[in-house]
Amino acid sequence: MKINKIFEFIKNIPNFFRKIPYFLLKLWEGLRFYAVFMFMFTLYVLNIPTVFLIRSHRTPNMIRFTIMRFNVAIARIAQKYDTQFASRMSWFDLFDLAFRNMAFKKTRSIITVGGMALGIAAIVFLVSLGYGVQNLVITRVAKLDEMKQVDVSTQPGSRNKITDKSLEDFKSQDYVEAALPLVGVAAKVKFEGSVTDVAVYGVTTKYLENSAIKPIDGVLFKTEDTVSINTHSIEEKGVESEENIGGAPEYVVGGDVSGVMAVKTQSYIGDRIGDIEYTIFPNSWLRVYSEPKLSSKVIGYTKRMVGVQYGEEYWGQEYVPAEYGRIAQSGSGEWMGKWIKAMVPVWEQKNCPLHEPLCEEGRYYPTFDESGGQMYAIGYTPELEIMVNKVVSNFLVSEEGVLGIEDVRTVLGDSAPGDSAVLNTTGQSSPVNASGLEQLSDEDYIAKVYESSASAGLSQNTKVVLPDAAQREAVVNTAFLKVLGFHEPNSVGSKFNVSFVLTGNLLDSNKKVESEFTEYKIVGIIPGDDSPFFYVPLNDLRYLGVTNFSQVKIIATAAEKLAEVRKRVESGGFLTSSVVDTVAQINQLFSTIRLILGLLGGVALGVASLGMFNTLTVSLLERTREVGLMKAMGMTTDEVKRLFLTESILMGFMGGVIGMFLGFICGKFISLILSIMGLIKGAGFIDITYIPPVFLLLIFFLSL
Questions:
Q1: 85, 217, 540, 614: most buried, per Cβ within 10 A?
Q2: CA-derived radius of gyration, the chain
Q3: What's the CA gap between 685 and 139, in Å, rounded?
Q4: Residue 192 DSSP label
Q5: Residue 531, CA distances (Å) to 320, 521, 620 in order
Q6: Tell me: the pLDDT tens digits for 512-555?
Q7: Which is nearest to 253 in space by CA: 507, 521, 538, 550?
């Protein structure tokens, strides 16, 4: 039996394909009927007021004459179409008859149109609510200018630094309008005998303006472009303060001390350092060696994989550049660099056609194992073009508190031999946060900067005096005022003392620089009650020896070019974060919400449509005698069909128009209630509904 049904189905397949032209023809006729209906109904609606004004005795003669000409033009257009079907009832007569039939059964027509209106109102209200809340959230999250901005940062633990050269490279890229640096440091604020720790942003005026930061009182400080100063080192002042008796010497900006950090360990080439999480830079190909030596066998080449890669860090043979590959001496005095041991996919280097799917860049082809899959091999790669995300050291802390380090010697260009210091590395082996540039608020980010600055274990503390060229102005948030006990209305012009704390990640040297307490003046106040912080001119921190930046805000020439700019920046090993990512997540979330709301409204519309279909079916069955009478009077079957279709379309049309109006009014009513509540609490006007024109057209055609 089943086989017979299968054969019957296969046998009917050609018949189905032969009927496709018939189905397409019927579809075309239906679309044509709807188009003609809408055009003629528009003329019919326009004709109604013209007839009323012509018949009215109060209409001035000149206006009546103009309207009569317009009425004649409408009649000619309608007649020109109707003359093509001389034996058929005209469209205007058809509309008159349909409205009279609907008026004859008022209750049934009102219920049918009302059901359609409620269904349309439900779907319009729910979907407009989704669009409105989405727009409201996006406008709160991002301004229009922020959609073409991206924040650039370095991965914690990475060797990449954002320097003046990096800043110039960003500015020189295509489609980049500006690159605005930021420096985040910790600070000690002294006021009326008490000292508190606060986070500080060093920025330019342009940065504040492009970050949509507007003061609620006072003004923003005015700054020039960032200064370029010699900040490689500092010069000893030779005076001991009360806080520095018997400690490190006090310093001021200036001087030319240059040197490198040489570390002597008890380890040897091939010794394991610890577990590691790392990421290879985009578009980079690395050689994979059988041993941590450049002279060992090359197994193949590898590249960046999706996500974070895991491996082990080993001491290995030195390599160039010395900054990365010549960082420690073994027990025998041999220079060593850091290598990564990991299982990685392997490619071989050979010429191959670019159009071949497996060929990459015309030079790299996968190496296959015995099973036919790509070969994975355990090998060593130098830590070049690699971003180290997380290191967990295996060294044990000795009795002296030194992690496997025998001696640390700072070699100075002109200093006397023997100047040395033991580096206390406690805290340096703690895992670095591998999340990269997190999606933090401004307050959380600065708090994180303070935490890292205050907890860094550095070899020397350096006292620095802020020069007279510094502006000494601050823009503070309301939380900062509350911490110090200022009264907000009278705070502009107030002064407080601050000491900045700078760490090695912002400096060229591995020192902790702390400035003398300096008096700063509050020139502006911005909103923010979560975490206390304030902004100072970037040049004030540059005078203290800052050579590297914490972040850079890149502004693209257009929002459409931002993705291309981000791609180029990320290819250099930097991390990027933009409000565009947040907006994309919001859009994705609300697209799902709108779909759910649309389905709920669609259920209501479907129920209303079934109700209208049922009403029209009953009406047709009740009017069989009327149909017979109309046919006896000369109406054709096609005209009877057009009459019933016209009645159903008119009911759907009126239900759609009334429903869209009801949905719009309901949305605005809810927005009005929320706005009144918001105005009472000082939040301002709130509009939670928005109806895209395309969506209105779609709903209108669905109602027909």
A1: 540
A2: 39
A3: 13
A4: T
A5: 44, 20, 72
A6: 788 899 999 999 999 888 888 999 999 999 888 888 899 999 99
A7: 507
What is the bridge-based pairing of β-strands 364-366 and 234-236?
A: unpaired
Q: pLDDT per residue over 33-78, tens digit each?
A: 888 888 888 888 888 888 888 888 888 888 888 889 888 888 888 8
pTM comes to 0.54
CA pair distance 612, 647, nearest whole angstrom: 11
86 and 621 in contact (C-beta within 8 Å)? no
- Dist. CA 48–CA 61, nearest whole Å: 19
Angle at the Cα of 502 (from 497 to 505), degrees rounded to 5?
A: 160
* Contact between residue 133 and residue 555 where contact means Cβ atoms under 8 Å apart: no
DSSP 617: H
Specify the range with the lowest mean pLDDT, choosing from 47-56, 203-212, 261-270, 440-449. 440-449
514/188 Cα distance (integer angstroms): 10
Residue 52, phi then psi, degrees to nearest 5? -65, -45
pLDDT of 18 reads: 82
Contact 510/261 with Cβ under 8 angstroms?
yes
Q: How far apart are CA 641 and CA 646, in angstroms?
A: 8
Q: Is 4 helix (H, G, I), strand (E, B) or coil?
A: helix
Q: What is the mean pLDDT of the chain?
A: 78
Residue length of the chain:
704
Alpha helices of 545-636 — where are they, by DSSP H? 562-571, 579-622, 624-632
Domain ranges, ordered by start, for the chain: 2-86, 98-142+584-703, 155-258+432-436+443-573, 268-396
From 59-68, 236-245, 312-321, 486-495, the region with the lowest mean pLDDT: 236-245
Question: Residue 194 and residue 231: Cα distance in Å, rounded?
Answer: 31
In whole angstroms, give the CA distance from residue 377 to residue 655. 69
In this prediction, residue 157 carries a pLDDT of 61
CA distances from 363 to 286, 353, 379, 386 (A): 13, 8, 21, 21
